[in-house]
Amino acid sequence: MTRRNMVTQTSDGHVLLVKKLGGLFAIIIGCLLTAVGVTFESSGTTFVGVLFLVLGAGLLVLKIVRRNEGSSLP
């Protein structure tokens, strides 16, 4: 039973790492695209940049919520 729990935790850890790195990557790309879009007055590029920012923030929030699921905080 202990081995099964360890495997579950390992696979969850991999998912959390992917969400964290994906979220950070999306935020960085979003910032760059938003800056380029604003600089060159391109509403399409700005919109895509903001979408990447929202996607990255969403992935990080999902990671944090998943990590704190078992927490005993009220």
TrEMBL record:
Superkingdom assignment: Bacteria
Species of the source: Bradyrhizobium diazoefficiens SEMIA 5080
Transmembrane annotation, as ranges: 21-40, 46-65
Annotated protein name in UniProt: Uncharacterized protein
Keyword Transmembrane: yes
Keyword tags: Membrane, Transmembrane, Transmembrane helix
